[in-house]
Amino acid sequence: MQTQSDMRDMTDNEKMEAFLARIDRGEKIEADDWMPDDYRNQLIKLISMHGISEIMGALPEKEWVPKAPTLRRKLAIMAKVQDEMGHGQLLLRVAEDLMAPLGKNREDLLNDLFTGRLKFHNVFHMEAPTWADAGVIGWLVDGAAIITQTMSLDSSYAPYARALHRICAEEKFHAQHGESIVLELAEGTAAQKQMLQDAVTRWWPSLLMFFGPPEDGQITSNQQQNMRYKIRTQTNEELRQAFLNKYVQRIFHLGLTLPDETIHFDEAANKWVYQQPDWNEFKQIVKGNGPRSSQRLRLREMSYEESKWVRDAILAYGRVAG
C-alpha cells in the first residue's frame, strides 16, 4: 500500500493507476485515502441519496404509527420508523466524511434536499392510504432495497460497506415485518384481501422504477464507471431481474395479481419479460412532482427547522466544553 508520502511524489496518472490497482486487488478505500475526484463525487451522490431516502422513506410509514390496527403492530412500525431514521443518520455521517475536504457538511446536504438538488427514491414520493400499503412497503419496497444494498456489501469504499452490513441486517427484520402484515391480510376477510390487492396494484410501477431505467443494451457511463470502481457490481436491469425472480411467484402464490398481463419468465432468454413503467413519469417523480413529494419535503423541512434549537444547544455546549 502506498503511503501518503509516496502518493505526493506521483503524477496524477500514476495515482490513478495505483488507486485502480488497489481496487483490483480487493483492497478497501478509507475516508482519508487518496481517491480520484469522480470516485469521491459518485460516492457522495450515491450515499447522500441513500441516506436521505432512508429518512424520507420513514415518512409514509410514520403516517401509520397512530393508525396501526393493534398495539403490537403500532410498536413494530414505530421501531421500524426509528430504524430507518437511524440508517439515514449513519449514512449521512459517511457522506460527511467524503464532503469534508470539499468544505461541505450535513447542513449542505439538507439544504440541497429542500431546494430540490438532492433527490430521493421514487417510492417515497408515493401515497400510503391504507394499512396494506404499510405491509407492501415493508415486504416489497424494503425487499427491493435489500437487493440493491446487498450488491454493495463488498463496495470498494470501506465506510459505506461497513454501514451497509449493519443496515442490511436490520432491513431483513423490516421485510419480515412487512411480510407478516401482508400474510395476515391475504388470509383475512374479502375486504382485507381486496385492500392488499389494491396496494400491490398501486405500488407495482413504482417497484419496477425503484432500480432505475434500463440500459437498452448499453451500460450508462455512470454505471460503467461505478462498476469499474467497484462501487456497484450489477446494472439496474440485473437488480430488477433479481427482484422479479424473488417476488413474482410469491405474489402469485398469495392469490394476488399484477397489473401486467404480459409478465412471464422467458426460459430461452433466462429473464423476466414485463411491461415497462412510464419512465417519463419516473423522471417527474424524482424531480419532486410525485403524489406526496411536496408534503413529505415540507414535513422534513419543518422538522429540521423545529429541531434547530437542539443543534444550537449542542454546538454551544461543545464550544464551552472545548
From TrEMBL:
Entry's Gene Ontology BP terms: phenylacetate catabolic process
InterPro entries linked to this entry: Aromatic_CoA_ox/epox, Ferritin-like, Ferritin-like_SF, PaaA, PaaA_PaaC
Gene3D superfamilies xrefs: 1.20.1260.10
Gene Ontology terms, MF aspect: phenylacetyl-CoA 1,2-epoxidase activity
Pfam families cross-referenced by the UniProt entry: PaaA_PaaC (PF05138)
Cellular component GO terms held in the UniProt record: cytosol
Designated name of the protein: 1,2-phenylacetyl-CoA epoxidase subunit A
Species: Brevibacillus fluminis
